[in-house]
Amino acid sequence: MTKGIKDLQPARLEQALSARGLTKGQLASLVGVAASTVTKWCKGDQFPEAEAFDRLALVLNVQAEWLARPMLPPVTPPLYRSNANALKSARAKLEAHTEWAQEIALLLSNYVDYPKLNIPKRSFIDPEQISSADIEAAAEECRALWQLGKGPIQNLVLAAEGAGVLVIRQETEISVIEGLSAWSQPLGCPIILLAADKANGFRSRFDLAHEIGHLVLHKHIPKTDDKERYNLMEKQAHRFAGALLLPAETFANEVRIPSNLDNLLILKQRWGVSVAAMMMRLHALGLLSDDERLLLFKRRSARWGSKAEPGDDQWEPELPRLLRRTIELLINEGVLSVDNIPRYLGISPRDVEKLCHLRENYFDSPVAVIELAALRAEKYQSQLSRLSGDKAPVVPLQRLKK
Description:
single chain; mainly alpha; 434 Repressor (Amino-terminal Domain); Arc Repressor Mutant, subunit A; four-stranded mixed β-sheet; 17 helices; 4 strands; Rad_response_metalloprotease; IrrE_HExxH
């Protein structure tokens, strides 16, 4: 093993490669070393000299100190939304970004308390154990825990974040990947990543409800590559999403039977659910036969095409707020300065903006915001002094609005 900057964490380097979508050969070319050298860095068989270490951080657009931090435990193997044949590199990139979000949330949790996890608990170990009645009951319990009532859900992202689920929304650049869900051991909560490639609020809401279904129903079921088992779990998450967004009794009472596309189109804006998803829900409730469902889908395709529907642009995608509001609060209360936040988190300002849903160039010219979260009462004076260079105390919890 050769000498060099031995603080380099090989796992950090591998994670950064995945997050940036770079191969070892591409990184070697950018840094100006042989590909075999990068391979040795990733294995821990060799360490970069100081100059190469600095170039490595510059090329990967991370803080040099970040490359030396011990790695957090990884998130659990993610369950993807429509991931059957997604590219391995694309999955690795999204998983790396999910772990970056985990680390951001954990570092910020030094100063704030996040909402407690509050989702239904199920202990299924095999998807074959899960019945339709189980799924309906789980969705009903989820609504009850989140105090959503029996009507349309106004903002599902806000409800999920209030229940302790960390939600991020990011472009996946791969059409077949619409989202993923995983569990974070350090945070003690789940993380959901939603694809932002398609600006369709109806589809995004259903994707989120689908991932919540995976978290509730499949937490204790090992990830599988078996196609039939995977498809069954997808169908169960679909059923949960429909039940969560369209509760059986309330929704059924508003649907005219026999149903048609025009009637469902009216209900679309009220419930925030696509016509296609409503047709599947009606079929699941036994209000549409197999033949009636097939006929309606044929009519839908003939009138509107196979994907888009009228009114798709009338419902903006719901955006996560938790991490954004946390950063805004810390800045407003003087706990961390604008300049110090990306340095504290270790990644580039642009990465922080994307993962925390801050406006572009936020760290160049932040705007004033109101208090939106509760700071922790614990003292982190030594860490604050190191990061901000001043003696500002952590803001007491009593000063903040509940």
